[in-house]
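Saturday, quiet lab. Running sequence design on the structure tokens for the scaffold JK sent over.
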């Protein structure tokens, strides 16, 4: 059985609250789980100590038994010093999309053509003056 340390949503509409649970990968997000090992309240300020609560001993136990944390839970565990999270690098994230890049290229081409058209009469006048 493969295990995940993941979030299970609780709370009411527009007031999220998440339990950090150990669950089988096949069970649904808010469905059956094995054990609750913490909680996360995203409505509290980031600086507050009550925003993320973790049971470190139980998390270490389940990590030792092969449970893998999801991305969000891995961030919490890294902040708490329970496991190391590798930083992700996506250099293409900041680049514009295909359509936006086409628009940028079209604008540059139009500007170059306008500059060339403006420079052509000036060059013709210089040639005539000589």
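Result came back. Writing it out in full:
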């Amino acid at each position: 059985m493969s295990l995940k340390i993941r979030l299970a949503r609780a709370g009411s509409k527009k007031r999220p609250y998440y339990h950090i649970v150990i669950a089988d990968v096949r069970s649904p997000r808010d469905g059956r789980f094995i054990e609750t090992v913490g909680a996360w309240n995203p409505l509290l300020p980031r600086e507050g100590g009550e925003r993320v609560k973790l049971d470190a001993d139980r998390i270490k136990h389940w990590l030792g038994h092969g449970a893998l944390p999801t991305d969000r839970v891995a961030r919490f565990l890294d902040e708490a010093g329970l496991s190391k999270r590798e930083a992700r690098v996506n250099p293409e994230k900041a680049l514009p999309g295909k359509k936006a890049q086409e628009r940028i290229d079209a604008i540059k081409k139009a500007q170059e053509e306008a500059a060339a058209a403006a420079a052509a009469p000036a060059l013709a006048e210089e040639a005539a003056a000589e």
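Notes for JK: The chain is about 40% helix and 25% strand. The beta strands are 3-12, 15-24, 35-40, 52-54, 68-69. Ask whether to fix the surface positions before the next round.
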